[in-house]
Amino acid sequence: MTTLACLLVSLLPAPAFPTIGGASDTLRLGVGSPEVDGRIFPAHLARNRVYIGDGSPPVTTWTNELTVGDSAGVPVHRWVTRGVRLGPEGAGASWELVQTYDARTLAPLTYYRWSSDGSSMRLRIEGTRVRGVQQAPGDAAPRTIDRVIDRPGFFAGASDLVPMAVKLRPGLVITAPVWSPGMDATEVRVFTVVGRERVRVEGADVEAWKVEERVEGTGRFVATWFLTDASPFMVLAEMVLPDGRRQRITGVALDGPGGE
Predict the structure, then answer these.
(1) DSSP secondary structure code for residue 258 in this structure
(2) In 3-state terms, what secondary structure has residue 157?
(3) What DSSP designation does 57 have?
(4) Assign residue 187 a region: left if phi > 0, alpha if psi is -120 to 50, beta otherwise?
(5) Is the distance from CB of 12 to CB of 215 less than 8 angstroms?
(6) Collapsing DSSP states into helix, strand and coil, what is residue 141?
(7) Are strands 90-102 and 74-87 parallel, antiparallel or unpaired?
(8) Kind and range of the H or E element at 209?
(9) Domain definitions of the chain by residue range
């Protein structure tokens, strides 16, 4: 996955997304929709790198490791993401994110993130109920979180998992609610399947599905995803930062032939 890829996505205003196909080409999803089946993702390990602009070295890197298990008889996915910011003098701040999803529905169940700057957050998500604790750098004690969101949502920081867990076809339009700890309410995202395209990723050519993600209602651009049906699944993401620079996130498998 690219579970953390979206943590760096900027929501830049853009023209409204085009209508592709008719109403029959639109799939409106919610958490629990039968069309979504995350069990297509096997256990795997991948690496992501973030580049800003052309010809620059990566500014951030992380690994995503998925293990498959169960919790009280329910199949679950456990994602562990370990990352570090990069600078001219070497590694900077590091962080780790551990998440648990329902393996079939992709419903978020638990969320734990800590950073070397002293911040941390631990959450349990039960439908629309979100409970846990959060601590900012320098805080003497953690702050309790107990809130209710408007409806269940897929995790916004891993929104690319949603189209990957659906059978894709050119022209398909998918809508789905997403949510993250930093959002006051869920937000409906629109994923448009443009078609198949060959892209260059870390020196290799990869054939992938091109999927554009925007915000419903405003057409605000989120990202263009290039997705495959094998590890690392998300091979490339492209977005535009508020200052106009292009940001790219690459994905490379570490658990197969040619893995590092």
Answers:
(1) T
(2) helix
(3) P
(4) beta
(5) no
(6) coil
(7) antiparallel
(8) strand 204-215
(9) 5-253
DSSP character at residue 96: E
**pLDDT for residue 3:** 43
Token look-up 């910011």 returns 85
The position carrying tokens 């953690």 is 142
Segment 99-133, tens digit of pLDDT? 999 999 999 999 999 999 999 999 999 999 999 99
- Give me the sign of the Cα torsion angle 99, 102, 108, 109: negative
Helix (H) or strand (E) holding 163: helix 161-164
Read off φ and ψ for residue 163, nearest 5 degrees: -65, -30
Residue 10: how many other CB atoms lie within 10 Å: 14
Cis upstream peptide for 232 (omega within 30°): yes
Q: Which residue has the tokens 């846990």?
A: 132
Query: pLDDT value at position 152?
Result: 97
- Lowest mean pLDDT of 12-21, 37-46, 94-103, 123-132, name the range: 12-21
